[in-house]
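Entry 12.
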Amino acid sequence: MLPGNDSQTFPGHGPTPYVAALLFALFLVFAPGGQVQAIECPPGFETLPGCTNGGGAAGGTGNWSQETIAGMNVRIYTPNTAPAHPAGRALMVNLHGCVQTNTDLANAGNWEATADEYGMIVAVPGAPNGGVLLGCWDYYDSNHTRSNRHNGNLLGLVDNLLGRSDLEIDADQVYLSGLSSGGGQTMVTGCLAPDVFAGIGINAGPTVGTSSGEISYVATTETAGRNTCLSFAGSASNDFDTQITSVIYGNDDSIVAPGYNTLNAAIMAGIYGATDSSSFSLSGLEGNNTSGSGTLYSDADGPRVSLIDNSGMGHNWPAGGGPGGSYITTNSINYPAYITAFFFENNRRIDADDGGNGDDGDNGDGDNGNGDDGNGDDGNGDDDFPCSETTASTYAHTQEGRAYHQGGIAYANGSDDDLGLWNTFNTVTLAETDEGHFQLGSCP
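Predicted 3D structure (tokens):
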């Protein structure tokens, strides 16, 4: 997870960064919280009870395969279901942490059901050449380009999969996520290539520009992290305009300082210009532990950054289901389900479903959507109109033409009823009492 760097020190000048990384990695091996390893069964026996490969244990209907791509061992899950978006399939690249392998994450990361639901390809690469040390991704310091370190391997993997017509991957739906050093690498690569990754998911990852010896305390600032990220992007910086980010961590993480997570969210929100913040509850999310809190950072057009503090979780990938495994917990929200839904609902690079935000013209044309501007029925229209009710997030209401938004607040089309914060977590019921006229609550 947390590599050293290429420099060496002389006797009397302290341990080399590689030694520090080795000590850290050994701590991971023996630290509490690493659950029992998942069981990978040989070919022909994958569906036996307890086996976690082959899709059977996690309920997936697709298939895992294994290839060498861009110098990495890659596990690929291909669903049998159709893509959720007509533009093509989404691709989720998921990175493991130190003292963990891509097989661990493929077997116990709990991706199958979500991948089936969205028709999404999941690629889980192993760090090239076994990682910098004990599986660690090479995320540290500020000497990064799109072609050096592990960055070139990951971009090569994406290029390879996009080039396969049989996979039907849409280039506007490419996402990257990872735990620990994989989370740090996710942030680095997401900053280097915002044109490639429409969304990034950072799970307990140190901030860009930090080193392996700085994992236990926050060693940088929001300004420094933002400047490092922008410098990585260079000429691709304009693509931050349509990138989104999810950050998740556990408050019981004793390995990577929890403060890095709030810092990472603030850095990306600052880059995106997402200045409006709101809180949301985890209680309605999938998973075995929905304790904690969420913060959403939005711009004028909706959510851009999600930050989740999952109470009681340590330094783990938050599977929220499945068998659990090495630094993979089931005592968490179902993060594969959450991050995928967040990315699909807020992707800025694909057209919204059927109708978008509407024309926003019904909001202030004087008649409040009441038809003849003075029919005396307070917008309820023809008594014979069949009133109907729809319960959905305020974001979904705007996407489907029942509401509009201004300044981060959603309003019902026609009645202009205040629906509260415009996001994917605020759920309200709207009644259509006349054609195109909606009001908060149930039908009269």
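Annotation: The chain has two domains: 17-346, 356-444. The CA atoms of residues 127 and 381 lie 63 Å apart.
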